[in-house]
Q: What sequence folds into this?
């Protein structure tokens, strides 16, 4: 899960997956020990490898009939795992395209229920692409529909903090900790956020001439700089 930006400099967009996913194996030997196609273990998420090992006559015959894509449709968990890898590797445009394709397929198939992980990844991809308000909208929808999940609250707080909306970030972190009091990332984020709020308050007080306020602000700034190192 993302940690809040210290002094509003951290992007806080590299969230970990909301849930763990079991990988599902596809392919394997058919009944009777028959040989499978070279593409039998691939899904449509994988590129078709070049043919190899065929005799010349077989190649000639293959050119006389239409090609057959023997790759399997990926299981939902395989799609989710692929999206996760793309997000981790920073291929955010590709991840978003795959997310939107999966969402469209679910709508077309009339799939009931909500894929919470896909929704969470959607918000992360949008945030990583700088589409902050759209990401906030998705996270907000998640907090409305699934208030018991702390991760959307935590990530929502990170986005609010990057926009300088510290009070809203604090409210979101309090909701994350209400959902899960043991959520360490949210607890640490709340500590960083309170430092930022104290810095803001001392700067304002210093600007109004309060004795010692500027020195307090400098102390907090120094502490934040140490945390960044």
A:
């Amino acid at each position: 899960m993302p940690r809040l930006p210290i002094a509003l400099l951290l992007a806080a967009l590299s969230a970990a997956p909301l849930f763990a996913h079991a990988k599902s194996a596809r392919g394997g030997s058919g009944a009777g020990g028959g040989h499978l196609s070279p593409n039998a273990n691939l899904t449509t998420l994988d590129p078709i490898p070049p043919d190899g090992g065929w005799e010349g006559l077989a190649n000639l015959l293959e050119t006389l009939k239409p090609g057959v894509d023997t790759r399997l449709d990926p299981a939902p968990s395989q799609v989710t795992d692929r999206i996760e890898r793309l997000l981790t590797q920073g291929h955010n445009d590709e991840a978003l395209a795959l997310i939107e394709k999966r969402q469209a397929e679910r709508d077309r198939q009339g799939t009931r229920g909500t894929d919470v992980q896909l929704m969470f990844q959607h918000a992360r991809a949008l945030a990583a692409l700088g589409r902050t308000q759209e990401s906030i909208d998705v996270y907000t929808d998640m907090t409305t529909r699934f208030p018991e999940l702390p991760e959307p609250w935590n990530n929502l707080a990170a986005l609010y903090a990057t926009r300088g909306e510290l009070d809203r970030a604090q409210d979101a972190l309090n909701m994350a900790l209400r959902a899960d009091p043991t959520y360490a990332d949210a607890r640490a984020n709340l500590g960083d956020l309170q430092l930022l709020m104290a810095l803001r308050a001392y700067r304002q007080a210093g600007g109004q001439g309060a004795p010692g306020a500027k020195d307090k602000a400098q102390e907090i700034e120094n502490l934040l700089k140490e945390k960044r190192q």
